[in-house]
Amino acid sequence: MIKEAPASVCCAAMNRTVSPAGRHFVLGRRASLLVSAGVVSHLLWTSAAPALTYRLYAQEWHLTHTATAAIFAIYPIGVVVMLIGFGGISDQIGRRATMLAGLFASLIGSLLFAVAPDAWWVFAGRALMGIGVGLSASPSTAAILEFSRPENAKSAASATMAAQAVGFTAALLLGGALTEYGPWPTRLSFWILAFVLLVLLAATWFLPRHTVGGARRDRRSRMPSVPKDLRPAFAVSSTAMMAAYTFGVLVLSLGGQVEHDLIGSPNAFLNGAVLSIFPIVMGAVGIIARNLSPRVALTVGALLSGLGMALLIMAVNLRDLLVYLLATAAAGGAYSLLFVGGLEVISAAAPPRHRGGTLAALYLLGYLSMGALALVLGAIATTRGLSLAVDLGAAAIILMNVGTLILASMAPSITSSSSLGSGNGND
Fold first, then answer.
1. All domains of the chain in start order, with CATH
2. Cα(150)–Cα(336) distance, integer angstroms
3. For residues 161 and 283, is the Cβ–Cβ distance under 8 A?
4. Contact of 115 with 121, CB cutoff 8 Å
5. 3-state SS class at 5
6. Cβ-contact 307, 249 below 8 angstroms
């Protein structure tokens, strides 16, 4: 049976702070938690930022569904490459240093989008965004767990979800408004994102430096890794994460075109507002999910996901906007439950010295499944039609949900003896 870790051991103690030369100001625990949450929020902000401009790029540069899906897919591919090569590096050089490198890459990527004269600049910018997220995903998530107070540890996974929801919603609502009503519709939203990333870079610089005791420093330890005793918990978490992250393909890559076809409006703000139902429900359910056990969250999330995918298939084939809205809301709730449940399982099992590498492996599978599905469905949408691509994508997610249900029901007890209470992971 999957058990929640007791609050006393759910979050790492911040036991060793190093004050670097020339730095006299260091953020406290609460401010550091907020900054870490800000870094997490940029993960889905950068992911969703081009969602409402894909159609504009396609019109301006005469791009096919395959080309726009490839622009989407280069992002998770960049994430995957960095996770494979450097997924566990924050366990070696610290969370702060790794997040700074990731934010810098995302900043350069946003600037390339802001000045892009053709699709190749967008490809390069998207790749750099992927590199940035690949570097900062696991350390920022680990930092939230480690900066949370022990009595608030149960809320750490929900805080991570809330941060993602804020970034996602900002990308869709703010991005949609700027794209529709602001000047430079394919550029201004990326200038705003670049400014936000610059502020996050400055704030992250003042995070405290902490070291992880006992961490290996060989090349292999920089890669994502899962110790043998964590693999049962990892199997449950990774299956849930893959099901959750592949929603991004249907909501961000193909969802914009589906929504445009159903609404029949070119208004980017209206389209963004409809798409934002996903992260708004995601954030709201994340608050509720912190009161659920991981097993319940995963089970309900998988069932809700299956319902959402069935509604999505129905909406596309019947061209029914109301059913599409219900499908989007169900998918948002399912994402939240699957993510929070999966993160609680793995964070309770992973000790601090392995937390960065284990979370990196978790994100690796999520982004790898997202990138592969985006490429396949993009090609199908171009050659066989958007409806078939959505049907196949929804069927793939339903199969992942079945896997989540099976693994969650069969998982052995997950103890918390090696959990969040011993050590820390910032630089």
1. 7-16+25-211+226-410 (1.20.1250.20)
2. 22
3. yes
4. yes
5. coil
6. no
Q: Taking the CA atoms of 259, 281, 166 and 208 in sequence, report the sign of the dihedral they define.
A: negative
Separate counts of helices (H) and strands (E) for the chain = 17, 2
Rounded Cα gap, residues 315 and 327, in angstroms: 8
User: Per-residue pLDDT tens for 36-88?
Assistant: 999 999 888 888 788 778 778 877 887 777 777 777 778 878 888 888 888 77
Q: Find the DSSP H helices in 293-320.
A: 294-318
Beta-bridge partner residues of 210: 17
> ∠ CA(324), CA(325), CA(331), 5° rounding?
90
Q: Which amino acid is at 374?
A: A
* Three-state secondary structure call for residue 18: strand
Residues contacting residue 28 through CB under 8 Å, at least 6 positions apart? none
Phi, psi of 126 (to 5 degrees): -65, -40
- Taking only the tens place, the pLDDT of each residue in 191-226 is 999 999 999 999 999 998 765 544 455 555 566 667
- Determine whether 322 is exposed, middle or buried from the number of CB atoms within 10 Å of its CB (0-12, 13-18, 19+): exposed
Q: 18 - beta bridge partners? A: 209
